[in-house]
Amino acid sequence: MKLVAAVYTLASVAVLTLMVMRPPVQISNTATTPTAATAPATVTNQAVNAPATPAAPVATPATDNTAPATPPATTNKPAPDAKAVPDYAREQRLASEISDAIMDGEVVSLNDGTQNFMGILTAAEQPRGAVIILHGRGYHPDWEDVAHPLRTGLAAKGWTTLSLQMPVLEKEAKYYDYVPLFANADKRIDAGIAFLKQKGIAPVVLVAHSCGAHMAMNWINTRGDGDIAAYVGLGMGATDFEQDMVQAFPLDKMKVPVLDVYGEKEYPQVTSLAAERQTLMQKAGNSNSKQMVLPEADHYFKDKGEELNAVVANWLNSLPL
User: Fold this and answer.
1) Is the whole model's pTM more than 0.70, yes or no?
2) Cα separation of 224 and 284, whole Å?
3) Burial of 83 (0-12, 13-18, 19+ CB in 10 A)
4) What is the pLDDT of residue 68?
5) Which of 246, 248, 242, 214 shows the shortest CA–CA distance to 136?
6) What is the SS3 assignment for the chain?
7) Distance of CA 99 to the CA centre of its chain
8) Closest residue by Cα to residue 205 from 145, 254, 268, 240
9) pLDDT the model gives residue 75
10) Contacts of residue 133, Cβ cutoff 8 Å, sequence gap at least 6
11) Residue 76 pLDDT
12) Which end of the chain offers a freer environment for a tag, N or C, measured as fewer CB atoms within 10 Å?
């Protein structure tokens, strides 16, 4: 009996040992197992349907064709900086490239307080006044899609034009990189107005496209609109992905008439801010202010130079200036 008991005891120990050494069984319960969390989508002007399963991340290019987004709380917005310096070397290269090709107009030299910069003066035979043209980001005063059609077309319709070289940076620079240069842009607009006053050409109208419009808005914020008779903004409000505007449009503070023009195929950001711009213009109370959409035009008014020129010229010629 003692032998039997000993054998039974050894067998029991062996069974227990095997049970302890057995690997655990993984139990899958699809009804209760949590799925991976999906980050909330930022809705910008369009309804967004969430995918049934998390989608792979997609890199968004840093161009100015996205609707405005609120930067992360840790992002510090830049501000205009009197010490900020543009890429003068690139400006000189641009001037060298285009000066010899200019057939209509005269290249003039202006000064931003530190260095000379280029302007193109295109005289009308019997001018109604003068139009200062500010090109978009990274371009030049004879840029083919906006600056050239306006500077030559408006001159043909009775407005002497002065197209200014606005401060530029390297090609990869974004909206936030340009904001510090707004202080330099203020000086260039001042120089353009002073130049036209010396020539006795008045009234003076300011026409600005895209980043040039940001610069013009900053100038009006800091200087007011007392030195101009009207303002035309083209494609106003375009920035870059996750780079919100650093200051509001001062359109409600302006006494002069304003023409706000944007393309039917504009960047969503510009289009989404149209209602806000319209409200501010109405608050200013100038009955001659208008907002217009150019059919089939994109942000750069590519291949729409004649139509753009007609819209601006007809509005200017309708004003009691």
Assistant:
1) yes
2) 13
3) exposed
4) 39
5) 214
6) CHHHHHHHHHHHHHHHHHHHHCCCCCCCCCCCCCCCCCCCCCCCCCCCCCCCCCCCCCCCCCCCCCCCCCCCCCCCCCCCCCCCCCCHHHHHHHHHHHHCCCCCCEEEEEECCCCEEEEEEECCCCCCEEEEEECCCCCCCCCCCCHHHHHHHHHHCCEEEEEECCCCCCCCCCHHHHHHHHHHHHHHHHHHHHHHHHCCCCCEEEEEECHHHHHHHHHHHHHCCCCCCEEEEECCCCCECCECCCCCCCHHHCCCCEEEEEEEECCHHHHHCHHHHHHHHHHHCCCCCEEEEEEEEECCCCCCHHHHHHHHHHHHHHCCC
7) 27
8) 254
9) 58
10) 141, 147, 150, 151, 161, 162, 163, 164, 207, 208
11) 83
12) N
Torsion of the alpha carbons at 85, 90, 92 and 96, rounded to the nearest 10: -160
Alpha-carbon distance of 317 to 135, in angstroms, equals: 22
- Per the listing, tokens 């019997």 go with 126
Each residue's pLDDT tens digit, 51-102: 333 333 323 333 333 333 333 433 589 999 999 999 999 999 999 999 999 9
CB 150 within 8 A of CB 133: yes
> If DSSP states are collapsed to H, E and C, what string results for 50-96?
CCCCCCCCCCCCCCCCCCCCCCCCCCCCCCCCCCCCCCHHHHHHHHH
Q: In what order do the strands lie in the sheet with 204-209?
A: 106-111, 116-122, 159-164, 129-134, 204-209, 230-234, 258-265, 290-298
Q: Are 136 and 143 in contact (CB under 8 A)?
A: yes
Residue 220 token pair? 């009006």
